[in-house]
Amino acid sequence: MEGVMEFKDYYKLLGVAPDADAKTIKTAYRKLARKYHPDVNPEEGAEEKFKEVAGAYEVLKNAERRAEYDELRRYGGQRDKGFEPPPGWQGGRGKSSGSAQFEGDFADFFKSAFGNRSGGFQGYSDFKQDAARGQDVEIEMPVFLEEIMSDVAKPIEYRMPVFENGRVTEVKKSLKVKIPKGVSDGERIRLKGQGAPGQGDAPNGDLYLHIRLIPHPMFDVEGHNLLITLPVAPWEAALGAKVTLPTLTGKISLSVPPNSQSGQKLRIKGKGLPMKNGTGDLYVIFKIVIPKNTNKESKALWQSLSDISAFDPRSEWEK
Amino acid sequence: MSDIVLGISLQELCVQEGITETMVIEVVEHGIAEPLAGNDINDWIFELNSVHWMKKAIRLYHDLDIDWVSIAIVIDLLQQKDVLLRENERLKNQLDRFVNHVNDRH
What we know:
The complex is a heterodimer. In chain A, a hairpin with a 2-residue loop joins strand 6 and strand 7. Chain A folds into three domains: 10-114, Orthogonal Bundle (Helix Hairpins); 123-213, HSP40/DNAj peptide-binding domain, CATH 2.60.260.20; 220-304, Urease metallochaperone UreE, N-terminal domain (HSP40/DNAj peptide-binding domain). Chain A is 27% helix and 24% strand. Chain A is of the alpha+beta class. In chain A, helix 2 (22-36) packs antiparallel against helix 3 (46-60). Chain A starts with 9 loop residues before the first helix and ends with a helix. In chain A, the strands form four sheets. Chain A has a four-stranded mixed β-sheet. A three-stranded mixed β-sheet of chain A has the order 1-5-4. Helix content of chain B is 61%, strand content 8%. Chain B has helices at 10-17, 21-29, 48-64, 68-98; strands at 4-5, 7-9, 45-47. Chain B is elongated, with a radius of gyration of 20 Å. At the A-B interface, helix 2, strand 3, strand 4 and strand 6 of A face strand 1, helix 1, helix 3 and helix 4 of B. Chain A: This is Curved DNA-binding protein.
């Protein structure tokens, strides 16, 4: 191990005094872990923070390792710039497993100082990852509604970690994915062997795609049903009308029934999104729109309507 | 073009994700994930979304040092939060199409 590393003060990371007892350290860790755990805190930077905290606790919770660290700290903490293990320090003990749960700056420091110990924080005892198998990669895949209607393969591009010559680098990969029929928002699909490459003869990891539907300018999605808001003139709503309605599979003709209300829904069967068996429906929601400007003639007509009508839209309020 | 798979078997899950069978049973017994099919444990198949939550649960179990009942509650609440966030977004979009901008009365 050569090179200069930034020294990590584990006590500072956990916000405890260097002479804190085991219980205090545990409490401090638990508090911070709950706050920054990436599975609970989706904010940017939370994961990095959690890794630092977890790494610090991994060392400080173990009396023997803590003593070793304290020795290092006395030596390294005095330096302003960088950190090198003291002469004679037996860094890099233990067998390198190559599984990189946590990467980057912190892990480098940890490895250089403590080596990749088996049972260390790099591998959970219940995540006994086969060291050589490539990592799985999970990415979000934004999909247009038009795309899940078609059979065309969608090109995607993603980055994945590749372990080479003892270093982890990121490699860009592109792929064409045919979106399976009937997928819905939030669903995950798995592409075997498209994750990070395995070492030697070991199998590749898998690629997990998290499907996210991109909001459409016209259609909203509810499960496998689509919703469209149809603006109608007051007279169209009152008298009924024939209008042209866009759907994802082309335009259709729609009859607006007489005396339609604003907000009223109409169901058109089979014009929604494809399901595993069958197709969802399209719901049309009427929205009555009043002209922005009224000319003399129209105003007179509205006036005569007002004169003859006994309609009270607020009759409910009187009760 | 590669194989698209929508499920994962217990064996695959254990080998590929490096999870022990005991952990999976624990997760299933606490209702955090449910196998899609299979009465016998050796026939268990999991839907990929439940694998996502399963992995989350196991990570939380180790990292936060809390018991399975608490994990089940956390996962349940996180799932509810996900559903509500998405529903909220959808309803907001729908409302925006329907409601005009507010005109202040002077």
